[in-house]
Specification:
Two copies of one chain form a homodimer. The first copy, chain A, is of the alpha/beta class. The first copy, chain A, folds into two domains: 221 residues, P-loop containing nucleotide triphosphate hydrolases (Rossmann fold), CATH 3.40.50; 226 residues, P-loop containing nucleotide triphosphate hydrolases (Rossmann fold). Chain A is built from 19 helices and eleven strands. In chain A, the strands form two sheets. The first copy, chain A, has a six-stranded parallel β-sheet, with helices on both faces. A five-stranded parallel β-sheet of chain A has the order 8-9-7-10-11, with helices on both faces. In chain A, helix 2 crosses helix 8 and helix 10 runs parallel beside helix 19. The longest helix of chain A has 21 residues. Chain A is elongated, with a radius of gyration of 26 Å. Chains A, B: This is Phosphate--AMP phosphotransferase.
């Protein structure tokens, strides 16, 4: 069941326009504030219901400089693309408004009504639920979402088709179903009835009422600018720190054994990565000097740089801060990128941002679920996520820091910040423990590797990759 | 003829690494400074010459956090994409270094050697020349470019292919030619001999020398951090201000004639735009309140919002300022966007930026040619550029400003800045005159429309579009 508007009253056009513009400006001013928000307007519905006209009318009432309209042709779902990937780059920054014509629901409906290969209804419902969850993550991260279904009865649709300029038919046919086919129309209506209850349905028989309703819904959303939730909901349950983080096992390996095994493994790993038909995302986290760079180097040893990309993650830039935390990772991960390696990652939210207070309690505490959903979406899109925590002992870190300070071409690797982070050693261990407790999923498990012996650690990393790729 | 390095001396690895890192940091520090620069490293050459190995070795010598490596599969040229479009988003920001494996030269060579449809050599040479010009624009806008050809003799290539692990062959075959085919090899060598002289050729027989030469070339480029050119080269030759800007003709049109003609024209224009097989970019410039918004509204009147996108151009953001001025337009124009309308545009460089001093003399004075090249590239990629200057009289502007101040839902359209711009009226007229003088090209002509009568102006805009689309 979807809500239907009943308490709708038309407003004076002038009044509506003034209020819309004021609300636009008020929202624009929230950028960087404690009630910052952007608004994403998802527009779907029956052809000829007048989505386009309603958006054009809205554009005339608002300040058009601050309303972007984006329309994509539908993307039929395929296996290596999450439903949000084609759109993530467009997610509006704080203060912005975006109308999205083509969106994940367009794609879902197109995929579901695909003649040769329709979606079954269980999968359809799963998608709808994932979309709702994704939108909830957007909302929690200051991107408010409003979803409007422009509805039109079969009868009215047919009479509008009859009245249409024949040269326009061609264009309309390109976008969607055969609107003369009652079975297809009914099927679409049946599918959209399975959408979640937060959709707003606008009956488009009457054009003036349609445009007014649409604009008033947008106005109501724009005006809603609550302060952000910053406090945690309850007491935080700190996970127990695993022994391997406190006392990483010390192991020995002979130079000869290392070299032999390394050679074998690098070659095996490169082939395994290259010929797996999934995309692979490899994530490295761990204390400074734990050996992330060295491990990455061995993974790519036998690969050609055209086969992979290494993403080195530093502090976000200003334009990234104006969007959801995960946004810069959504946009970095491209479906056509076969092997992506992250030197630090989205776990920064629950590591440095948690510890240094860049994220407030509400933000970092809900981030575990956001991250899990993100990784699940990747997994469902045939992208394997392999996660490493490199566990170094505090003593060994000190030895490496000092050695870096004494080696001219390594000196750049060690900064005052590294020494400061070291002072928060225990906080990082706690944060790591919580990460393992909450994000060690079936679909994206953690590999915790003891790294006091660098050579041993590198071999372990390679073995873990093979294991997760099911190669023995 | 390409230059060959003769005076090459290997450096101590440690020394080379330290110098590279220092140079990296020095360049990183230039961000926002008067010697700001980024570095783009284009890497091409013969398969198995060791491009990948050399880049990996460079990554080990430098601070890998500040060296991005990007590799795309080749894009065969098609008609609606300029050669720079697939790469423009990746152009590095000030302080950054990017190695581009797949790049416009890869695409050119792939297109030229395309079996079924090879490029003829005149077209090939034109592309090479356009690429050089584009790179010069990058350099002038703080993106330094270095182009390296990794060369390998036929004999060595064959012996490396013989030594190769058979499972790797599959991968290598995917990227490029049949390297066992001497004719294809010779053809490639012949083609790259037609490249410009600024290529650096590295002979890759010896691996150590190859990696050293590559790194040393990069080091030399990194170290070169001259102060930017800010002064103009000579005295500026101001164009004469056309009469239409000073005294836009006053015309009358009856309400009835306007409505009738408008209806006819909007319908004609929407069909013309929709069914033209080119992409169309429509640009609006002109004084504040000249009627840009109203004209745009009539163009899209009969279009569906899924058919076009309106780009409203405001001041650049910080991350945009760290790239060439045209960058934000390169990235906004997507080949799959059929109709793009710009409410203000790249002409901001030679209007507001010139007048307010946001661009220095050298910058705005060379911008005319940069813009011409940009529009020519679009034209050559089957994208029609239609440019409008809406010419309002100073008196009429005042009337419209005052009316805006008195109308509640138009009040937002008028700000103190608009009144300030009005004080610089004559500067804007001069700047406009120079624009017409220098950017009124065959492939992208200007339409100057008198707009004191809004209705008349809207009809004129629609007629001009039809005219440039060759519709009568």
């Amino acid at each position: 069941m979807m809500l239907k508007e009943t308490e709708f009253k038309p407003m004076q056009e002038e009044q509506l326009s003034v209020e819309l513009i004021q609300a636009q400006y008020a929202m624009k001013e929230t950028r960087g504030q404690s009630n910052a928000k952007s608004l994403l307007i998802l527009v779907n519905g029956i052809e000829l219901a007048g989505k386009g006209e309603a958006v054009k009318q809205l554009r005339e009432w608002v300040d058009p400089r601050y309303l972007r309209v984006k329309a994509d042709a539908p993307h039929i779902f395929d296996h290596k693309k999450t439903f949000w990937q084609p759109y993530s780059r467009s997610i509006p920054a704080e203060g912005q408004i975006l109308v999205m014509f083509g969106n994940w629901y367009t794609d879902l409906l197109s995929t579901a009504s695909h003649v040769s290969n329709p979606l079954d209804s269980t999968l359809f419902d799963e998608y709808v639920e994932n979309m709702r969850a994704y939108e909830q993550d957007l909302k929690n991260n200051n991107v408010d979402v409003i979803k409007i279904w422009f509805d039109l009865s079969w009868k009215s649709l047919q009479s509008r088709l009859n009245e249409m300029d024949p040269s326009e038919v061609h264009w309309h046919k390109l976008h969607g179903l055969d609107w003369r086919n009652k079975k297809q129309y009914d099927n679409l209506q049946r599918l959209r009835q399975r959408f979640t209850e937060d959709w707003i349905v606008i009956d488009c028989e009457d054009k003036i009422s349609r445009d007014q309703q649409f604009a008033q819904h947008v106005l109501r959303k724009l005006k809603h600018l609550p302060e952000h939730q910053t406090k945690a909901k309850g007491k935080w349950k700190q996970a127990k720190i695993p022994e391997i983080l406190v006392n990483p096992p010390q192991v020995e390996i002979s130079e000869k054994d290392y070299k032999e095994e390394l050679k074998k493994l690098t070659s095996k790993v490169s082939k395994a990565l290259r010929f797996d038909d999934r995309n692979v995302v490899i994530v490295f986290e761990g204390m400074d000097a734990a050996g992330k760079g060295g491990a990455i180097k061995r993974i790519v040893k036998k690969l050609d740089p055209r086969e992979y990309e290494i993403h080195t993650i530093a502090a976000p830039e200003k334009y990234e801060l104006a969007r959801p935390y995960l946004w810069r990772f959504w946009t970095k991960l491209q479906p056509e990128e076969k092997i992506s390696i992250f030197d630090r990652s989205w776990y920064g939210r629950v590591l440095v941002e948690r510890i240094e207070g860049f994220a407030n309690d509400a933000e970092w505490q809900r981030a575990y679920n956001e991250i899990n959903r993100f990784e699940k979406d990747l997994f469902d899109s045939r992208t394997l996520v392999i996660k490493f925590w490199l566990a170094i002992s505090k003593d060994e870190q000190e030895i490496r820091f000092k050695s870096r300070e004494e080696t001219p071409h390594k000196y750049f690797k060690i900064t005052a910040e590294d020494w400061r982070n070291r002072e928060r050693w225990d906080d990082y261990l706690k944060a790591a423990a919580d990460i393992f407790e909450r994000t060690n999923t079936d679909y994206a498990p953690w590999h915790v590797i003891a790294t006091d012996n660098k050579q041993f650690a590198r071999l372990e990393v390679l073995k873990a990759i093979l294991k997760q790729l099911n190669i023995d």
